[in-house]
Structures are given as C-alpha cells and as structure tokens.
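From: lab user (bench 3)
To: helpdesk
Subject: output format question, protein + FE2/S2 (inorganic) cluster

Hello, I'm new to running complex predictions and I'm not sure whether the block I got back is the full result or only part of it. Here's what I submitted:
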Amino acid sequence: MEACQCEAKWEELDKIIAAHRGRPSDLIEVLHKAQELIGYLPRQVQVAIAEGLGVSLAEVYSVISFYHHFTVKPKGKYQISVCKGTACYVKGSPEILERLEKELGIKAGDSTEDGKFSLEVVRCLGACGLGPVMTVNKRAHGLLKPETAVEVLKQYQ
Ligand code: FES
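Helpdesk reply: Thanks, we reran it on our side. This is the complete output you should expect:
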C-alpha cells in the first residue's frame, strides 16, 4: 500500500472490504475499521472502500467530512485536541487554539512536518468545569490560558 507503505495492512484492508462487499449501508463501519487499521483514510483507501462497497467516492468523502472522528491526514505522535464546545468556547478556547497554531506553525486539522504533533478541534470532552480543556494523546489539561497551553506543549517537545 502506497498510502501506509505496508503490504500487510493492505491485505487486512482487503479482508475488511471483502466482508462488506456490495453493502453500502456498512460504509461507516468499514471506514471505522479502516481508520483503526491504518490510522487515517488516505485517498487510495477511500477509493478501495468505494469500489468494494459499491458507493461513489463522493459519498465516501461526504461521510468522512461529516464525522469529525474521521481524518484523511496522518496524525502526529502527539495528538492535541482543543475543545471548542460551548463551555470551553466561552472560557477562551479560541485563544488557546490560536496560540497553539502559532506555536506549532500549523492550523487545526494539520500535523507538524516532523510528524510530532497534530492539532484538532473537538466538541465537549466531558470536562466542562475545567474549561478551557485540551487533551494530548487523551491526557486532559484543563483551566488553560494561552501561556499554560504552551507550557503543556513544552512537556512533549
Ligand atoms: S465544552 Fe469543553 S469539555 Fe465540555
């Protein structure tokens, strides 16, 4: 597989697709499994799934775009998720995100060139009382200010 450079993963993906062949209603389930296997959903994988399930590529892409969980880009070693749910938003999460984007030199949805960090926006992490909140590889950091968010980042650099 060019996308993930791994023959074994292509084989595994083929098996997943084969188990759902010709079943368009299984699209979300197959996308979940493919992302679990590869880590993200590059175009080659989308094409293989579309062909296997008998749906259009546009349909695959629209599902991927609709569900925040899916990503078409590889994630970084450290995945930073900044909460922009209502409680965090009103407590200043836009400023946190802006500061992290500046510090990392990337926009939300992207990864740093060295593959170390990726940045994304999420909706409510379930810790509203600690807002604004971000997680780094699922570890939560709360009551953030732009400067403390940068301090957190430094722990991982
Ligand atoms: S709104 Fe951010 S944790 Fe709930």
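A quick orientation on your result: The mean pLDDT is 93. Let us know if anything else is unclear.
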